[in-house]
Each structure stands twice: as structure tokens, then as C-alpha cells.
Specification:
Strand order of the largest sheet: 1-2
Number of helices: 7
Number of strands: 2
Strand content: under 5%
Order of helices and strands: HHHHHEEHH
Largest sheet: 2 strands, antiparallel
Distance between the termini: 55 Å
Mean pLDDT: 88
Low-confidence stretches: none
Length: 131
């Protein structure tokens, strides 16, 4: 669960570091916190919020028609119709995505099947052959 202080700290820092972005003031922060989805407040941790902020900074084509606080949800919650759907919960592969925080992890493409990584298949007979 994130606190209002963590939320505001991340958004303030992010709004100051993004190019062509006006830094948010205290009133904007308060409004963002009051209107931020309650379920997102419960499910997000400080680490997940910071990961989302990092992904927003790395995104080569960030959305410009969504407020900054709601943009962050796209990077960590499952998406429906191109937008975060908090009711569907966090992305199933979020732990794997968070292991690559310095690389932009794009949204899955519609219709693309994302399979979990599997260990390589080896032929036991070949292991007995002396190469």
C-alpha cells in the first residue's frame, strides 16, 4: 500500500524531470491523490510506483491525453482497450518486468500470446555422447 507522501513525492519528482512538462503544485497533488483509484492505492507499493515512474521516463511514446498519475497505472496494471484496468489487477508478468527496470518494457500487443519462460529442452541421449 502506498501512502500519500510516497505518491506525492514520486509524482512531484517525475513532473520535474519530464521534458515539456509543467511541475505539479500542492493543489494538483492533492487532487490527484483524492481521485486516484482506491484499489490502486491498496495494491501499489513504493517499489512498484517507482518502477512505473521509471517506465514513464523511458517510454518513447508516452500518452499525452491522460494525467500523469493515471499514466503510471498503464505500466503496472493489466490493460483493456489501451488503458489500465485497475479492477483486473496488476500485470501477471510484473515481477519479471521489474527485474528489468532500466529497460522500457512495452505493453503486450493485442492478440499476441505471452508465454512464460521455459527451461531449454535437451535430448538426454545427446548428453551421453562424447563430443
Amino acid at each position: 500500500m502506498i501512502t500519500e507522501q510516497e505518491f506525492c513525492s514520486v509524482l512531484l519528482a517525475l513532473s520535474r524531470t519530464l521534458p515539456r512538462f509543467k511541475p505539479w503544485d500542492e493543489m494538483a497533488m492533492s487532487l490527484a491523490w483524492m481521485t486516484f483509484p482506491d484499489r490502486a492505492k491498496q495494491e501499489l507499493t513504493r517499489e512498484i510506483l517507482i518502477y512505473a515512474a521509471g517506465q514513464r521516463r523511458l517510454d518513447p511514446n508516452p500518452p499525452d491525453d491522460v494525467p500523469l498519475d493515471l499514466q503510471l497505472l498503464d505500466y503496472v496494471f493489466r490493460n483493456r482497450d489501451g488503458r489500465a484496468c485497475v479492477d483486473w489487477g496488476l500485470k501477471a508478468d510484473l515481477p519479471e518486468r521489474m527485474q528489468r527496470p532500466n529497460v522500457f518494457n512495452p505493453q503486450p500487443q493485442p492478440g499476441a500470446v505471452v508465454l512464460p519462460p521455459e527451461p531449454p529442452v535437451t535430448n538426454p541421449l545427446l548428453q551421453e555422447v562424447a563430443w
